[in-house]
């Protein structure tokens, strides 16, 4: 008994509130992990954890509603096996005891090399139900309840209701308290068309995801969460949910042959696709899908059944193919005024070292920005040759502020230092050898404002050294009618994203968000600080759950030449500095993927304070 009490005291010293039922077994000390039980839905008695696993868990990131310690995959698989052994194969409880996606995640994590995102147990989305053609309240009630009862998902529900006065009164009387939920908003179509109502809902959205559910359908248990999980883990911009009756997907998935009962789409994608077109009327949602397909946006067709069409209901009609082609255009466009509603304000940071001819081209491209009120910060990063002519050129400009670094800091540390001088809510990267297209800043900031994003990224058009361009381009596409143009495109991060996914030369970030992230990192050596720093910031922002807005539009012309940071012998891919920086990025990524962390720990804002000085 004394030995048992001592062991129990040791277990208590770990301070884990989820360890219950501590006892000795043939294998040593074990306990019930109530956190694993909560995740899997299995009985706590089936989630026995050995002391050694508890020690590893206690040394890792703390357990929280937003993160799961890396030891959890093994615990979950053991719970899976215990459930399989405890429940007969023909028992209906078995299939729901451990969620399929959680089991798959645990199995996948075990096979990875230690860099794997944790299970995200909390989601948020705005859900739209078009109930204009519902004449009975019960189907609508079932659809609404299937959304509101979704576990671990914060939902703001928007219900579009009929405009006819009689129908409105009848539905209102039948619904009773149904429409008085605090997170449910009703929209009566009186003077507005469907596109106008949808655009109004999107403008008022409280999350980064919009989910559409047909009023004749319901989400299966955890169906909404699985839909959102698919959006986040695949990096898709749209996810189409599979329905039990298989009306959602035809034999040719990419053609959307029949109707769709539910889909999730990123808020930024709706804005970037041009919102809901008034000219398309009732087909405005289908038009969004058509544009996404035609522009080769990443789209995911769910493998698991997530919705069900209610018995006796008609086939869902809120999204139909309407001749949607499965053949994407493989074409891009340069940024234009299509998203710009008002003039925007932004700070732009242009650090340079020598190469004043390129720097002047870069500065002039920023000065030529349309629909934008800018403050341009031009910083001499300890050039080895005279920059007097460049400074004299812009000394009298009211838009340009001139600075000089006391030592060669590199572009990322210089960007960090400019934060204290920036005054606009947005701040943009401008590499000194690249050229911003005329509507870059207005387009970027407008999309961020409309999607409530923290960071923006777009596509780049490569020019200059054709050999380098061919080596580093993602694809050659048609750009505004010009064929075979080499481009690089940003994308949304997915489950296994471990590296560069945002084209840093196109980055625009909210000033407050950049400060909250801690800014760009410092890897301790000049050449290391020229490579991998941007990758680290992107991954840190992704795992800290900052919101990205990604456009297909080309916003920057990226110059390919032999002395750029990615081609210079001291920092190019494969160099010693690049290998060392990549190892540091990987080390940090393992920490980010473990769970909750303070991103400021990993940034370097303030580290070189005082090294960047304004010129009088």
Low-confidence stretches: 1-11, 61-68, 87-97, 246-258, 312-317, 320-326
Helix residue percentage? 25-40%
The biggest beta sheet is recorded as: 12 strands, mixed
What is the mean predicted local confidence, pLDDT? 81
Number of strands: 23
Residue fraction in strands? 15-25%
Number of contiguous helices: 20
From the helix content, strand content and strand pairing, which structural class follows? alpha/beta
Main CATH class of the largest domain: Alpha Beta
CATH topology of the largest domain: Spore Coat Polysaccharide Biosynthesis Protein SpsA, Chain A
Shape: globular
Instruction: Give the N-to-C terminal Cα separation.
Output: 79 Å
How many separate domains?
A: 3
CATH architecture of the largest domain: Alpha-Beta Complex
Radius of gyration (CA) equals 27 Å
Assigned CATH superfamily of the largest domain: Spore Coat Polysaccharide Biosynthesis Protein SpsA, Chain A
List keywords for this structure.
alpha/beta, 20 helices, 616 residues, globular, Spore Coat Polysaccharide Biosynthesis Protein SpsA, Chain A, 12-stranded mixed beta sheet, disordered N terminus, 8-stranded mixed beta sheet
Explain this structure to me?
Helix 2 packs across helix 4 and helix 19 (533-543) runs parallel beside helix 20. The protein is globular, with a radius of gyration of 27 Å. By secondary structure, it is of the alpha/beta class. The strands form three sheets. Strands 12, 13, 14, 15, 16, 17, 18, 19, 20, 21, 22 and 23 form a twelve-stranded mixed sheet that branches. Strand 4 (123-130), helix 7 and strand 5 form a beta-alpha-beta unit. Helices cover 33% and strands 23% of the residues. It has three domains: 2-111, no CATH class; 123-329, Spore Coat Polysaccharide Biosynthesis Protein SpsA, Chain A (Alpha-Beta Complex), CATH 3.90.550; 344-614, Alpha-Beta Complex (Spore Coat Polysaccharide Biosynthesis Protein SpsA, Chain A), CATH 3.90.550.
């Amino acid at each position: 008994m004394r030995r048992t009490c001592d062991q129990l005291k040791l277990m208590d010293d770990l301070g884990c509130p989820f360890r219950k039922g501590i006892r000795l077994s043939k294998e040593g000390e074990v306990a019930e992990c109530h956190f694993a039980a909560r995740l899997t839905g299995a009985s706590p008695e089936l989630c026995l954890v050995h002391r050694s696993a508890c020690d590893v868990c206690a040394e890792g990131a703390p357990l929280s509603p937003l993160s799961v310690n890396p030891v959890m995959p093994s615990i979950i698989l053991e719970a899976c096996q215990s459930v399989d052994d405890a429940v007969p194969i023909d028992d209906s409880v078995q299939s729901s005891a451990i969620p399929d996606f959680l089991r798959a995640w645990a199995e996948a994590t075990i096979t990875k090399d230690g860099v794997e995102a944790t299970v995200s147990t909390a989601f948020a989305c705005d859900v739209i139900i078009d109930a204009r053609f519902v004449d009975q309240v019960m189907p609508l009630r079932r659809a609404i309840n299937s959304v509101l009862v979704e576990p671990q998902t914060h939902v703001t529900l928007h219900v579009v209701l009929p405009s006819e006065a009689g129908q409105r009164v009848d539905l209102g009387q039948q619904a009773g308290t149904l429409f008085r939920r605090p997170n449910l908003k009703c929209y009566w179509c009186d003077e507005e068309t469907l596109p106008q109502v949808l655009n109004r809902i999107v403008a008022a959205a409280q999350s980064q995801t919009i989910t559409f559910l047909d009023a004749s359908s319901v989400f299966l248990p955890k169906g909404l969460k699985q839909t959102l999980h698919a959006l986040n883990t695949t990096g898709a911009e749209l996810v189409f949910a599979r329905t039990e009756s298989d009306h959602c997907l035809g034999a040719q998935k990419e053609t959307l042959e029949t109707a769709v009962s539910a889909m999730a789409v990123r808020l930024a994608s709706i804005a970037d696709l041009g919102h809901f077109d008034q000219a398309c009327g009732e087909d405005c949602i289908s038009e969004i899908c058509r544009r996404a397909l035609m522009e080769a946006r990443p789209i995911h067709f769910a493998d698991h059944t997530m919705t069900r069409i209610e018995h006796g209901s008609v086939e869902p009609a809120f999204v139909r193919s309407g001749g949607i082609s499965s053949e994407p255009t493989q074409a891009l466009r340069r940024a234009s005024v299509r998203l710009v509603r008002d003039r925007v304000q932004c700070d732009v940071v242009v650090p340079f070292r020598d190469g004043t001819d390129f720097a002047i081209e870069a500065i002039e491209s920023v000065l030529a920005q349309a629909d934008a009120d800018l403050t341009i910060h031009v910083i001499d990063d300890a050039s080895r040759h005279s920059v007097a002519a460049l400074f004299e050129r812009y000394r009298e400009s009211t838009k340009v502020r001139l600075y000089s670094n006391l030592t060669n800091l590199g572009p990322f540390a210089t960007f960090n230092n400019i934060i204290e001088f920036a005054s606009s809510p947005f701040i943009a990267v401008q590499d000194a050898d690249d050229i911003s297209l005329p509507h870059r800043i207005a387009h970027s900031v407008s999309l961020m404002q409309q999607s409530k994003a923290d960071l923006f990224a777009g596509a780049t058009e490569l020019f200059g050294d054709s050999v380098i361009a061919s080596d580093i381009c993602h694809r050659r596409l048609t750009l505004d009618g010009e064929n075979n143009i080499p481009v690089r495109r940003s994308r949304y991060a997915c489950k296994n994203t471990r590296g560069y996914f945002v084209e840093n030369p196109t980055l625009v970030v909210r000033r407050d968000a950049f400060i909250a992230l801690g800014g760009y990192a410092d890897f301790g050596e000049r050449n290391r600080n020229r490579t991998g720093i941007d990758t680290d910031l992107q991954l840190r922002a992704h795992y800290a759950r900052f919101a990205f807005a990604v456009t297909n539009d080309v916003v920057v012309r990226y110059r390919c030449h032999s002395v750029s940071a990615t081609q210079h012998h001291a920092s190019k891919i494969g160099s010693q500095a690049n290998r060392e920086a990549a190892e540091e990025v990987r080390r940090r990524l393992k920490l980010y993927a473990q769970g909750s962390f303070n991103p400021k720990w990993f940034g370097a804002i303030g580290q070189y304070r005082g090294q960047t000085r304004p010129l009088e």
